[in-house]
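Q: What does the assembled structure look like for these inputs?
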Amino acid sequence: MATVTPAFAWLHGRGPRTYGRFVAELPVDDVIIGSIRIAAGEDRIEVVAEPRDWIEVTGPAQVKTDGSMTTVDQVNGRIIARVPLGTDVAIGTTSGRVEVVGPLGEVAATTTTGRISISGATSVDVRTDTGTVNVSEVGHRCRVRTRKGKVVINDCGGHADLATDSGRIDVTEANGSVTAHCVTGRIVVAMDSANDVAAETVNGRIDVSLPPGIRAYNPEIDGLQDLTPEGYDCTVVARSVSGRVTVEPR
Amino acid sequence: MSLSGNQECAGAVLFTDLVGFTEYNESVGDAAALQVLDAQTHMATAALKGCAGARIVKELGDGLMLWFANAADAIDGAGALLDAIEHARHDGSFPLAVRMGLHFGPVIPRGDDVVGLTVNIAARLSDIAGPGELLVSEATIAALGELPTPAVCAVGPIAVKGIREPIWVHCVERAGEELL
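A:
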C-alpha cells in the first residue's frame, strides 16, 4: 500500500502522520466505491457518510490510501472521517466511543469495552466483549457477537445472526430470518414478518415474537421435513439444554 | 514448514472452543460432558488427515490447539472440522457449537508444545468468534499467496496484548446457513 502525500495537510514529525485534515482524492468512478478501515484506541471516532467523491479525515491519525482502501490509525484525540455514500467501513476500538452514520455499505465494528452506534448500513458485523452497541436501519444481514455486553438492533432487513454468552441482545423490527444463540444470556426478537427462526441456548433465554396470525412449523412437534410444509408461514427450530426458548405470535 | 527442535518456524495455529461447555457440563454431568470432548477430538483427528505435518498440539479443557504446516491446509482442515461439528449438531449427535480462531505466523517449538505471539493471536481470534464461526487473520489469508482464498467478510481490527499493531480479522463464509 503506497503512502499518499495528502493535500491540505499539516505534517508534524516523520512518516505519514497528519495533525489536521487529510484528504484522499478517489478516482471519479461510478462503479468503484472505496472502503475505509480505522483502528482506534480510547478516543472518539466518528464516520459520517455524505454525498461526496473523496474521503476526508480530520484529527490526529496516521492515514494511508491506495485509492480504493484508506487505512486510519488513531494516534490520540478525536477523529472524524467523512466518506462517500455507500462506503464499506471496518472499525475497531478498545474502549473509545464510535459513531457511524450512513447510508453506508458493509460496516464491521469491534470493541472491547467501548460504545458503538451504527445507523444506516447495507450489512453490519458487530463484536463486543462488554461494550454497548446500538444499530439501526440495516438493509440486509446483521451479525452480532457479544460476551457480556448489551446490543440493541432496530430494523434489520435481512438475516439476523445473533450470539451472546451472558449478555443481552434485543432486536426490534426483524424482517429476515433469525439465528439466535446464547449460553446464559438473553435474546429478545420481535419479528415484523414471517421468516424462519433457529434458536439455541444452554441455560439462557430466547424470546421470539411473531406477527399476529402467523403459523409457525416446528419440526420436533410437527414432524421432520426439509422445507416448510404448505399451510405454514415459517419454520421454527428451537433447542435448549436447560434454558428456555419461546416463539409465539404476538 | 514442520516443527523441529527449538528452531523458530512459520505455520498456522488453530484454537477451538466449545460454546457453553461449562454450563453444559453442569447440566448433564461429567460423563456426558467427557463424551462430547472425545467426540470433538475424534472429529479433529479425522479433519487433519491429508494435512501433512498437522497435529493436535494439546487439549485445553473444552478446546483444542492445533498446528498446521501451511495456511492452505489450516483453512481446509479448520473448515473440515467446523463442517463435521455443524453436521453433527444438525443431526442431533453433537450438542454444542464450536468457535475457532486461526492465525499464521512464526512459532517456537517447545517440546510437544508451540509458543509465541502467533499462539496468542489465534487464541484471541477464537475468543471473539461466534458459534459455528472460523475467524482468520489477514496474515493467514496473505500466507496463501497465489492459492485460492476462501470467501470472507471483514470483521475489523482487534488489539492483542503485547502487539502494537492491530490484527485485522476476517470471518470465513460458510456455504449455506443450516437450521439447527
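DSSP finds one helix and 23 strands in chain A.
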